[in-house]
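Researcher: Here's a chain I'd like modeled. Treat it as a single chain, no partners, no ligands.
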Amino acid sequence: MPARYLSPAISDQDALALVAVPLVGVEATIYNDLWNAVINQSLRPGDKLEEVAMSDIYGVSRTVIRKVLVIMEQEGAVSLPLNRGAYVALPSPRDALELCEAVGSICAYIVGKLADQPQIITVEQRGKLALHVQAETEAAELHTIRRLHMEHAILLALIYGNLVLATQLERAASRLALALSAYQGVTGNISTVQYTAALNQMIFDGRKEAALLTVNAAIERARKSMRFAAATGSVDLKAILGRG
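Model: Modeled as a single isolated chain. Structure tokens:
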């Protein structure tokens, strides 16, 4: 079964704690396949998700497919307009800007709290952050780096220890990734691994002001990179899904 998170620092147990409805077996496979395809931009916002095609891909009934799609609609990843099928969710321009604000606010709060008391970060947790930085160092593709940046924020939230905030951040960050997929016009201005490593060190050193400036600057770059015009089209689901 394909993993939900790329970062080796986020465990399967962490992943289960963050999902709205834990799934197992083929349902989990369908969910993770779809989620990964959306985050990796193999499926773009507005693409239609043909339930008959997915039933054929996974060898299950449309009832199973619909169950997974309903869960993903609740998380904001899928849109299910009445009697019109299923689509990858397309955040509106207003949604995109509000998601930037929400993700930025949650990240700033968590980073500020950790920088206020870096002594609460255990040796094991510092090791996880180092493991994550290594994963970013080895990443070669833009969408992989973007995805790992998102997961770094989730990892910080898990280290802070507020599961409610971590869950809300995961939802908002996933939807922001959708918005960036739809609207980002400048793909080359994403932060590099130096951003993650530097932010970690600022937190360890208790440099709260510098850490907050770094987070806010990253969110502002993402906001400014969006161009509000999105194209949609048909896709070949059999070429994308069911290959994990």
